[in-house]
Amino acid sequence: MSRMGYAEKGRRSLHPLDGELNLPPDLYSLELQHRVAEEAAKNSFEEVVATIDKTTGGHVSKRQAEKVAKRSARDFDAFSQMRQCHASEEKTTGTGSILTITADGKGVVLHEKDLREQTRKAAEKRRQKKGKRLSKGEKKNAKRMATVAAVYTTSPFERTPEDLLSEGGSRIDKMKCPPIENERVWGSLGKTPEEVIVEAFAEAENRGPKHDKTWVGLVDGNNTQINILKKITKAKGIELTIIVDVIHVIEYLWEAGRAFHPKSGPELEKWVQHRLKKYLRERQATWQEGCTAMQPGRNSVPKNGPLWINALPTCSTNLPTLGTIVILPMGCLSLPG
């Protein structure tokens, strides 16, 4: 398309029609860049180039596709900050009484040069057995942890162990959960887990500076995240109830059960279900009780028993006395009764 331009020596040409049409200063249109960014989030850059060629009338080289994808993410933090929720919004919408901070992590395989310093040093010492791909166990020092956080408001939702472990299956899916309100989700691959969780606390402070709601931290049992939550709450003097979802914690029960029932089957499943229901009911049961009471005639814990008992200190020993860490089913948030 031909259009008039104004030029001056040593300066970039000015095209009024470009401004009127809101055209980008780059070679590619905004919509084409949008398509490239969306495809880059799902596929390799080779596939991005092929898809753009097949589905549009434009063509983007691989190197340009990489630059477009990188530029599309440069305003991520600024965009995320614009979506902060403040106390005035919470009051206007009439939100629930529970303010929730949740975090999760995901390992992303990267080139050694892009790993964090400690992981990179460990990766440099690793000896690769195969020339083209990593063997089992070799990916341990090949990932960088991305952290995703979310802050939202909800209302209490009480359930019983029978709702989770009824004979006909879980009844929770059929129950109406309180809505999630004013949810804000963001994440980072560049920032440390602590930096992301600190941002989550800042978001929560914006919503409830008077701390008039019940603060809850929801995690999947990651000890690093739990320690960060404890560290921040201690420094800020905030009372926080940490909830660990039962889906991840139950894996420890399965491992403990295999010490008595090595083969998978109804006996192992019954053992796990019985111990989980007992734990959720009483909140006083310990792993030591479980490993001895369920195996009549044994005077000691099996060889692998202590490994599973000690694997979850923060989720068992603190629960009965401190009431700080509670194990509850995922899906709908509730507070201990």
TrEMBL record:
<protein>
    <recommendedName>
        <fullName>ISKra4 family transposase</fullName>
    </recommendedName>
</protein>
<feature type="compositionally biased region" description="Basic residues">
    <location>
        <begin position="123"/>
        <end position="134"/>
    </location>
</feature>
<feature type="region of interest" description="Disordered">
    <location>
        <begin position="1"/>
        <end position="20"/>
    </location>
</feature>
<feature type="region of interest" description="Disordered">
    <location>
        <begin position="117"/>
        <end position="142"/>
    </location>
</feature>
<feature type="compositionally biased region" description="Basic and acidic residues">
    <location>
        <begin position="1"/>
        <end position="18"/>
    </location>
</feature>
